[in-house]
Design goal:
Blueprint: E1 5-7, E2 10-12, E3 15-16, H1 19-26, E4 30-33, E5 37-40, E6 48-54, H2 59-67, H3 71-74, E7 87-93, E8 99-108, E9 114-117, E10 122-125, H4 126-139
Antiparallel strand pairs: 1-10, 2-3, 4-5, 6-7, 7-8, 8-9, 8-10
């Protein structure tokens, strides 16, 4: 795979394909090991996962910074309460940085509890991912 950055496609106006689906089904970068463990196909490293929650008032800023790929600046935005904020920055990566995936989602309990990708899922590979792995490791929010 020569491409170092891959994005999911728009599935409906303003909605984008899911990061997990892109990594697992489209790109096939991870495989299941046992029931819960996901591992990189190329390095066998375990997949790391993180979520960061934002209050609705910060959604436009999070989206703007994400689309401009200014991920470190997103980390400076005040976080909301875990599990109580609809806007979420999702991250899936491996420690080496060979794979780093990011996406901004919104939980929509009023639509049957579905999650909507507000941005394309972005997957950065090899040296592009290695540049972002330090940021990815900081996304997981403590309760």
């Amino acid at each position: 795979m020569n491409t170092k950055k891959i994005e999911s496609k728009e599935t409906a106006p303003g909605e984008y394909g899911d990061l997990f689906e892109l990594l697992m089904k489209e790109l096939k970068l991870f495989k299941r090991k046992f029931i819960l463990s996901l591992r990189s196909v190329s390095t066998n490293e375990p997949q790391r996962y993180g979520l960061r929650y934002f209050e609705k008032q910060y959604q436009a800023e999070v989206l703007r910074l994400f689309n401009e790929e200014r991920f470190e600046e997103i980390l400076r935005i005040p976080v909301g309460e875990v599990g109580r904020c609809a806007t979420q920055l999702e991250c899936r990566y491996i420690d080496s940085g060979k794979i780093v995936g990011l996406q901004v989602n919104e939980a929509r309990p009023h639509e049957g509890g579905r999650y909507v990708g507000l941005t394309p899922a972005k997957v950065f590979l090899d040296e592009e991912g290695e540049k972002l792995v330090r940021i990815a490791a900081q996304i997981s929010q403590k309760s």
